Amino acid sequence: MADRIVSPNGRNAVLAQDDGNFVQYHDGAPVWASDKFLPATPDPPPASTLSPLTIDGQFFRLANGARWTAVEGSDFNLLNRWQHGEDITPQLAQRTRAGYNLLRVWTLFDIPNIGRFLDIDYPRLPKFIDLCARWGCYVEFTAYTSIERREHWDALRFAVAGCDNVLLELVNEGTLAVNAIDMNRYARDPHTLCSHGSGGSEGVPPWEPWDYCTFHTNGSSEEQRKVGHNAMADLADVYQVPALTNETSRYPEVGMWVGADLDRQSQLAFDSAAGAALLCAGSCFHSVAGKTSTLWDAATERVARAWAAGARSVSTSCQPQPYRRRDDLLTDDLLRVYQRGTDGCLAFIHK
Q1: Helix axes 262-279, 298-312, angle to 10 degrees
Q2: What is the percentage of the chain residues whose pLDDT exceeds 70?
Q3: Is the distance from CB of 156 to CB of 121 less than 8 angstroms?
Q4: Where are the domains of the chain?
Q5: Does CATH place domain 53-318 in 3.20.20.80?
Q6: Cβ 349 vs Cβ 338: under 8 Å
Q7: What is the per-residue pLDDT across 107-147, written as a single tens digit (0 to 9) for each?
Q8: For 310-342, b where at least 16 C-beta lie within 10 A, e where not — what string?
Q9: CB contact at 8 A, 340 and 318
Q10: pLDDT value of position 42
């Protein structure tokens, strides 16, 4: 038997492993394995340089002039895994091939069911960032979540200075007692786009933003409309800076996902991300696998791809146009219809 069977178009292959199991690949990424999942490491693409992010009113723009929407995925434990010797290229390949361009990565934590990361190696951060860039990913580093070390923020921002594909978030849900820090201790970095961080779900942080705001919708009612609309109305419109909904209900165990079949979950994902792409600076698909930075299973990947498809269904040309609700377009199955400018810039949010 041949060790490797490749399809005529070169995109699909089946590899016989030494232990007798088989792994199927599509475009270099493992998609199925017999007996157990045995991912081989796809080769990273050639080195690429991502254009730095800049601020353009309530949205991000690339330094090369192109408009940009965040299609973010949670990958809290990714840096920890990489720093301690794990190969993370299967995760990077899966995320980017699903349509994601930004990863939310935590940098200091000891949280059950996520991981323990207390020994960050700051000088190695540029290498991690470069690896993510090679897969087309920007990185949003969150500095504090449940543990506060005064020196961590300065060490983190100094380590990433000069890296083009980085955003910095000071604190995750800093209005919650477990995450509270003394905000007066910390200063915005002049070289990297920074956010003070988020409040709890649907909460407006009590501090004015730095370069951009972050917003959470975990477990909220009618979440599929709030991911975009409330980030815009409660933060972006108030402060005239980008608002990024960088945490949503954790798939599949929290909020809007619970009790929904896979088709319904996919529709919720598409609508949530489309509304955010139209109304705010972007959104994040959050999942159990994203907490631990493991590979998505088949159901998670389907919903994650629907999220990315929704985000990419809205042209970035819609961003600067005026907003209005289109209640005249509502039907029995629609919760909201949002518009910016012309009829080509619509987001339909299903009930």
Answers
A1: 30
A2: 86
A3: no
A4: 4-33, 53-318
A5: yes
A6: yes
A7: 999 999 999 999 999 999 999 999 999 999 999 999 999 99
A8: bbbebeeebbeeebeeeeeeeeeeeebbbbbee
A9: yes
A10: 60
Collapse the DSSP code of 211 into the 3-class scheme (helix H, G, I; strand E, B; otherwise coil) and give the result.
Answer: coil
pLDDT tens profile 19-53: 444 444 555 555 444 343 334 456 666 656 799 99
pTM exceeds 0.90, yes or no: no
- Closest alpha carbon to 155 in 165, 147, 169, 143: 143
Q: 137 with 129: CB under 8 angstroms?
A: no
> Smallest Cα–Cα separation from 105: which of 73, 127, 147?
73
Neighbours of 110 (CB within 10 A): 12
Query: pLDDT value at position 38?
Result: 37
State how far the Cα of 66 lies from the Cα of 106, in Å rounded to an integer. 28
Region of 269 please: left (phi>0), alpha (psi -120 to 50) or beta.
Answer: alpha
What tokens does 177 get? Answer: 């007692």
Question: Is the CB of residue 192 less than 8 Å from the CB of residue 218?
Answer: no
Helices (H) and strands (E) in the chain, counts: 9, 20
Running DSSP on this structure, what letter comes out for residue 99? T
CB 261 within 8 A of CB 217: no
Beta-strand pair 166-171/193-197: parallel
Q: At what angle do helices 89-97 and 125-134 cross, to 10 degrees?
A: 40
Helix (H), strand (E), coil (C) string for 294-335: CCCCHHHHHHHHHHHHHHHCCCHHHCCCCEEECHHHCCCCEE
Whether the bond into 252 is cis, omega within 30 of 0: yes
Rounded Cα distance between 325 and 142, Å, is 33
The H or E element that residue 215 is part of is strand 213-216
Query: In terms of DSSP H, where are the helices of the chain?
Result: 78-83, 89-97, 125-134, 150-160, 223-231, 237-239, 262-279, 288-292, 298-312
